[in-house]
Amino acid sequence: MWLYPALTTYLLLIGIQTPVHFACIKPGFHLDGQHSLLLSLDSTIPIMTDKKLNTPFYFGGLASCSAAIIVHPLDLTKVRLQNAKGNQTVGMLGTVKNIIRTEGPLKLYAGLSASILRQATYSTARLGGYEKLKQLLLQREKNPSTLQLLMCSTAAGIAGGICGNPGDVINVRMQNDGQLPVHLKRNYKHALDGLLRMAKEEGIASLFRGVGPNINRAILMTSSQCVSYDRFKAFFQQYLNEGIGLHLLSSTLAGLVATTACSPVDVIKTRMMSATGAEGRLSAIGVTMAMYRSEGVLSFFKGWTPSFMRTGPQTIFTFIFLEQFKKWHTIWHQNKENRLIATVKL
Questions:
Q1: N or C: which terminal CB in the chain sees fewer CB atoms within 10 Å?
Q2: Count of domains forming the chain
Q3: What whole-number distance in Å separates Cα of residue 262 and Cα of residue 284?
Q4: Residue 277, Cα to own-chain centre: how many angstroms?
Q5: Is the separation of the CB atoms in 329 and 55 below 8 Å?
Q6: Alpha-carbon 197 to chain mean position
């Protein structure tokens, strides 16, 4: 069951066949109409990485936490739209205006502590796990295939989905609290208060509500985000110099793939996590069937625009921060080695 999201993403990746044409980005660079992203995403273009210097495990979580601070208002807007019942068509801007008008501008950062907690657990496990597994794979395979990378992302996604679920539940609840009736508001003071109160009032199991869809989403997100970023970057590295421009282009395209792949699972997960204890035990299949019967197929893509506007910047900033952390880490080690060599010479 957990392999299905990764294989779905694989089909998405190899299904991108639009020819890409460029002006002269690098001297002597030319790409004719016979070349496409399809050739690169499923080819043996080397993933350029430093095999000698391993990336610290926590860099992924640190990069995601940094990005989350920037994009949190968009994440909150996405959650509000996904929790909208029926066929409400307020839209992203309408939702933002409504929050500012009725709750105040600071409410756009409601649940920030839970968002940081979620990224510190969820993203550290999935991004850190993916980088470590990829490093191990590169020790054996010079040019790993897309399927091999998807196996790494699937394992990392499972770990991230489990580790990050409690923080994700609190994050969704704190962001959605503002639009609930007064008698249903939870009024968590911060993420830790929410965790303790949920465990006390609803039981430890409530912290893992929606863990099934969350694991599937984590697999989808890690696969579509990380694997597509690696493939896009490997492709464009043939024509662009290493730097912010390369990272920006690769992460933007990865964000588009990730948003499309994750949207249905994300909506189902959000509905399950925001449910009250009075609604009883909800299953992913039950929520899916109920949404399909009462709201139609398009309900699974509710909040797609703010989701992309959130996932896009989140992906962009995460990978830019991650690449910078890797760069600084490499420079620090190089300077350390240079100082050691200088000391030995003395």
A1: C
A2: 1
A3: 15
A4: 28
A5: yes
A6: 27
d(CA 344, CA 327): 26
Q: How far is residue 123's CA from residue 133's CA, in Å, rounded to a whole number?
A: 15
2, two tokens: 């957990």
pLDDT, tens digit, for every residue of 219-248?
999 999 999 999 999 999 999 999 999 999
Q: Provide the CATH number for the domain around residue 130.
A: 1.50.40.10
Distance CA 335, CA 198 (A): 48
Distance separating alpha carbons of residues 164 and 153, to the nearest angstrom: 16
Residue 67 near residue 317, CB atoms below 8 Å: yes
Q: Residue written as tokens 């394992």?
A: 155
Q: Which amino acid is at 181?
A: P
For residue 73, give its domain range.
Answer: 3-345
Report which residue type is found at 90: V
| pLDDT less than 50: residues of the chain | 1-4, 6-7, 10, 14-40, 42-44, 50-51
Q: For residue 340, what are the contacts with CB-CB under 8 A and spacing of at least 6? A: none
Q: Which amino acid is at 331?
A: I
The model's pLDDT over 71-86, given as tens digits with 9 standing for 90+, comes to 888 888 877 877 776 6
φ, ψ of residue 175 to 5 degrees: the values are -70, -30
CA-angle at 19, arms to 18 and 21, nearest 5°: 135
Closest CA to 247 of 170, 324, 309, 320: 320
